[in-house]
Amino acid sequence: MINPWSSSDFFDYERLKRDFGIGDMNVDFDHFLFRRHLILGQRSIEYIDYTLKHNLKFNVMTGLMPSGEMHLGNKSAIDQVIFFQRLGGRVSIAVADLESYSTRGISLEKAREVAIEKYILNYIAMGLEPCEIYFQSRNSDVQFLAYMLGNRTNMNELRSLYGFTDTHDLLHINSPLIQAADVLHTQMKKYGGPAPTVVPVGFDQDPHLRLMRDLAKRMRVFNIQYDRDLIVSVKGKDDPKEFIDMAYDYLSKRFDGVKKDYEYRVVRAEGVNQEDLVSIDLDLAGMESHYNDFTFIAPSATYQKLMKGLKGGKMSSSVPDSLISLNDDPKNARRKIMAGMTGGRDTEEEQRKLGGEPDRCPIFDLYNYEVDDDRYVKEVYDDCRNGKRMCGFCKREIADRMSGWLSELQKKREEAREKLSLYVHE
Ligand code: SF4
Prior knowledge:
This protein is an alpha/beta fold. The protein has 17 helices and 12 strands.
């Protein structure tokens, strides 16, 4: 069981991937987070790969919880959003003000202030181009869709995904449906129709991904399965004949040996390669969307590894000295770095002899997640391992870099304020 609202520590990522069917990251995106394997897992990333290779439209979706600080530990999701936006993705960002109200008791007014001051201005300062940023509480399409999605799940499922008990209030229980609607509404007709959508997340958010992917499939008329043969099943229509014929005609043009069965509401095709599944699903979704306003492609996801906090454990708002906030005063950030834990040895002599342990060093994580020069980061790693690098020097160097970057960001944040209306949709 993973609790997305309170998972507080590192996971055994490989076990989690095995237990919940999260795939290895197997697409070579040209960004250091991917090159350095800091993005460890994915769900149906082949959809995004396919759309990029064929120059098709795709969505990029993320949300922000307007509580606490935006810090380096949650920055890598935005780094990915900006990366995918530059590749042509259409970005939507949900301010989860209904969720912060229901799960943390934060008023909508406070949530708005925190979202703008601590998060959105930083996103723009980091280089996010104009996109759709909205508040859950003001988006009636999201609320309507959440209501409709409620018809496709039940308490048993929500209990097993989230561990809800009889004492959880209904607002909290409803919040995963709002999250699902956040991601899926970008595929509604008025937002451009069905399209692959990538959602960068931490592993602790996987229950949301599992739920929204299942809900997306349950809203579809056509569902595809692959078991050597391709099976397209037709769901939810009183008279499925028209849809069965539609799928049959489409598949017959591409493959031999296609059969339809009205009684079992399926179309079966032999000799289909697994690589063809994405294009088949996209084509069928395109056809279905003329009849079904809720035609969704199950969202894809990338899963990032947690950044270490400067005091050990994960970087978290509940331990202020463990994190570097993007709103930190550069001097304060320097102080925290200089007081941070390292993977160094007890004495300089031992460090020269045995080398340090960058894999368990929060200071090395600052290089790994924040310095985009691969060669230099590898040099830091190797020099540490070989005992050529001392922790004091390392801390001073990365503190200089980080405080310089924070000063720059501070200036850009003020310029960003002028552009807010290009982003925030009321
Ligand atoms: S030398 Fe740098 S990377 Fe190595 S353990 Fe010390 S602080 Fe960490």
